Amino acid sequence: MSNTIRLTAAQAMIKWLSVQMTPAASSSEAVGVQKTASSSEAVGNQKLERYIDGMWAIFGHGNVAGIGEALHAARDVFPTWRGQNEQTMAHAAIAYAKGKKRTRAMAVTTSIGPGSTNVVTAAALAHVNRLPLLIVAGDVFANRRPDPVLQQVEDFDDGTVSANDCFKPVSRYFDRITRPEHLLTALPRALRTMTDPANCGPAVLSFCQDVQAEAYDYPEAFFEPRVWHTRRPAPDARELDEVASLIKVARNPVIIAGGGTIYAGAEQTLAAFATQHGIPVVETQAGKSALAQSHPMNFGALGVDGSAAANAATEAADLVIGVGTRLQDFTTGSRTLFGEDAKLVSINIHGYDAAKHGAVSLVGDAKVALEALSAAIGNYKAEAPNAQAREDWLRAVDAYCARPDDQAALPTDGQVIGAVQRATDETAIAMCAAGTMPGALKLLWQPSQGGYHMEYGYSCMGYEVAGAMGLKLAEPARDVICFVGDGSYMLANSELATAVMRRIPFTVVLTDNRGYGCINRLQTMGCGGEPFNNMYVDCNVEDQPQIDYVAHAASMGAHAVKAKGTDQLEAEIKAARTRNIPTVIVIETTAKTFPGTGIETRAGEHGYFWDVAVPQVSERQKQRDRYADYITQTARQSLIN
């Protein structure tokens, strides 16, 4: 009989997580993380790192006695991070995993009830973006003896229901731990999901609070260190031949670089493929910075928030080659961007994504697939792309982002981006999630390779500040610049206090346009509505709020300052790099639109149609005119799924 060790279920979980390893991507140490003796080790000539790099925790009655005690006992080998909000703790963990290109992840534990359901939004974010996250959510008593316990959700007709069932549609793997021995199967299944490049996403362990404290004789072999590797499946030979044949006869192909390109570490492979075969590359939000903006084959942002050069190249393409993209509506212009006669190829690790929009599928790892395709098409070279269009667009970007002559006037978001760009170097990473800035940054930010981090699969307000903290932990050597609007900042800002406590430095550029400027433009310009309930001035209030964001950020310990104009903004961006705490720079901006917000229809010089439903019936002529235009645009949509 094998040897056993008697542990509580919570102790067993933490002990097991502490010995799950992955090959080290680099030797850089994370900022603000107290490295422990077992956080990294060497096996032979291979350096390893712990795959789950600690657990974010807010304790309550559903996890403090079980998981809390287990984390305390393991604090020297498995770090615990205290956050301010369960959702934002999870956002930080997600940003860390994204910054690590999914090679490492973090865990989050919560109490039952609202502690758990606070994380549901973050779980959806991780699910949509295909990012690994381990959620250990406290649950009710498995033995039901004290039911109903505080915060327990009761279903009058189903005794097995708990609030944690909310996680089921937004998790890649879900398990309810009602016996301590369930961990023997649940934990390996959770990490198999998180480390699977095709099925990667959040794993949720709904951990009954009495079971956390229950002891069991676990096999010692269960706690032997394990190394998790990311597989690189090669494409099917028949699919490879079919795609190669399509490329060989294409005259004007274009490549759409998605986030899967970056997660596969295929950036250099993509650059070599595009250069060798003369195929221009256009970018999604997740794929931006796979190629540096300076790369001659990088034609910039695609789609609704796309550049004139990228959208023109894609419209004219006879073959569209998606690489690691899930072909979201912003990418496809709500299925209007690709030419009627163009063929679509999709290279993707998951067959579900590879088959979208009637694409010819090439299922496999992006790096392996591009290498195999390059060999298969040999000396193929596409017709020369329109380099002049690319240069014209870059000149337009310079104009949008130029320093304003009048420093007293409220700058546009584009002018703010230009100021930040001028004040940073190639180490900078621009990051954001919601509002106007995602579209503006996708168009106007000119990153080095890896210099862009956007959560736009779920476009979740409140991700920005916590995400910047998690990203800095993942990329300690790079300068993290968090762009956030006043609306998103008001939604979730409390992890600034955590970053101050942990001495995690990053810079927040808080653009204050006194409301939800992005949705106001969508409402009034995109959908034909009237200004209502978005800007403070258009709300049914007696007095508009006068919020002192500088005082607010400073109250949490951040260095906070208000910039009066873009010149001062540049100076403050440079000064922020000298600090070991977060810096918040507030700058008032105009809420008016500027070229590149993505709200304009394809009649403009940039951007593309975005399908946002418009009312069929209205008393206002403006609304009726907008609906007529909407019908014209939707008639162009492809119906192939």
Automatic annotation (TrEMBL):
> Which keywords label this protein?
Hydrolase, Thiamine pyrophosphate, Transferase
Q: Which Gene3D superfamilies match?
A: 3.40.50.970, TPP-binding domain (3.40.50.1220)
Q: Where is the Thiamine pyrophosphate enzyme central domain?
A: 240-373
**Pfam families cross-referenced by the UniProt entry:** TPP_enzyme_C, TPP_enzyme_M, TPP_enzyme_N
Q: Which InterPro entries match?
A: DHS-like_NAD/FAD-binding_dom, Myo_inos_IolD, THDP-binding, Thiamin_PyroP_enz_cen_dom, Thiamin_PyroP_enz_TPP-bd_dom, TPP-bd_CS, TPP_enz, TPP_enzyme_TPP-bd
Domain Thiamine pyrophosphate enzyme N-terminal TPP-binding: from-to ranges: 78-151
GO cellular component, alphabetical, reads:
acetolactate synthase complex
Q: Mind listing the GO molecular function terms for this protein?
A: acetolactate synthase activity; flavin adenine dinucleotide binding; hydrolase activity, acting on acid carbon-carbon bonds, in ketonic substances; magnesium ion binding; thiamine pyrophosphate binding
Is Hydrolase one of the keywords UniProt gives this record?
Answer: yes
| A biological process term (GO) from this entry | inositol catabolic process
Q: Which residues form the Thiamine pyrophosphate enzyme TPP-binding domain?
A: 435-587
Similarity comment: Belongs to the TPP enzyme family.
| Name of this protein | Epi-inositol hydrolase
Organism equals Celeribacter marinus
